[in-house]
């Protein structure tokens, strides 16, 4: 089973407008609320692909109650850790041409008791888990090494870990030696305090991140695919050209499909191909939607995978 932890879940409000232009009005065409967060998105993809998953979330307040209601028809189990404060409300505004603006709240402040409850809930699920996905930002009041501590706990139970976060939690989490880390280009740039302008820059970034402690690295580069390193080998996965409508959530689909494929028995290279296919296929869909297994399979056939000299 793949367990996902979403520390900072949200009500995602997706607003479609006619066009986005600086210093000009836009007209709202539609608005929809849905449960969001990287781990929830990943669990949704894994479940839709036929994988076994469990999502863990802290939730509180009126928004938390709405979140739990929205999750009732998702089809996979969700374990909620009660917290005192309201979860956040995030906004995604997108137009007909695929231009997207994403505005996120910081999230609730958690106290020590709530953190202990979350830790205990995760610990209780490690006995039946093969993977633990640690997903997204940390809300206020959570120490930056929170994910790092969970990586250490998971290793003691022989549970593999995927780390998908940003900033200081990413830096400290990598030092705890997760099984896989999946930064996108912007997250890698912040982690390494550099700009990744060229393919050579990206290759060097993957090597540096691997040297920081991660067993395997998958650097997501959007429409350019991904570069990955594992066990002394490096690979590049190049997707076909597609008309990307909304890239929001494509990275979540990538991480989810990567673990789904590995759970199916595929080796790392083939799992990487599935990962890039899922991210690419999801980017073709409007709003925050995720490609089905059939839609992903169509793209999978066209993903080029090549080895890279380290």
- For the largest sheet, list the strands in their spatial order: 5-4-1-8-9-10-11-12-13-14
Fraction in beta strands:
25-35%
Ends distance: 33 Å
Shape: globular
What is the name of the CATH class? Answer: Alpha Beta
Describe this structure in words.
- With 310 residues, this protein is an alpha/beta fold.
- It has a single domain (2-308), classed as Ribokinase (UDP-N-acetylmuramoyl-L-alanine:D-glutamate ligase).
- The protein is built from 10 helices and 14 strands.
- It has helices at residues 38-48, 61-71, 112-125, 146-156, 167-175, 185-192, 199-211, 250-263, 268-283, 293-300, and strands spanning 2-6, 10-17, 28-36, 53-59, 78-82, 88-95, 100-103, 131-135, 160-164, 180-181, 216-220, 226-230, 233-238, 304-308.
- The strands form 2 sheets. The chain has a 10-stranded mixed β-sheet, with helices on both faces.
- Strand 12 (226-230) and strand 13 form a beta hairpin.
- Helix 4 (146-156) packs parallel to helix 5 (167-175).
- The chain is globular, with a radius of gyration of 18 Å.
- The protein starts with a strand and ends with a strand.
- The model has no long low-confidence stretch (mean pLDDT 93).
